[in-house]
Design a protein that fits this description.
Strand content: under 5%
Structural class: mainly alpha
Shape: globular
Distance between the termini: 40 Å
Low-confidence stretches: none
Number of strands: 0
Mean pLDDT: 90
């Protein structure tokens, strides 16, 4: 089973009418990666959940994910040489 198929099964189980496609899954995974690598691993599911709340309240998924990814990347530790 693919992640998209899994997401669609979850949507059906939760009676969510919106269809979830590969672009949506990829967006969520990218956001989770940024949160996990730049903040802390447990930040990934929490961040994805908060994105879901924001989208449920009307936020644009792409814009919200982009803004939160940028916020997460700002949290990444800097190396000694400033990179």
């Amino acid at each position: 089973m693919t992640l998209v198929e899994w997401a669609q099964k979850v949507c059906a189980e939760l009676e969510l009418s919106d269809e979830l496609g590969k672009a949506d899954v990829d967006r969520i995974l990218d956001l989770a990666k940024d949160a996990a690598h730049s903040v802390a691993r447990p930040a990934a599911p929490v961040t994805a959940y908060l994105l879901g709340i924001a989208v449920g309240r009307g936020a644009d998924p792409a814009e919200a994910a982009s803004a939160v990814s940028a916020l997460a990347l700002e949290q990444a530790p800097r190396s000694a040489d400033g990179a």
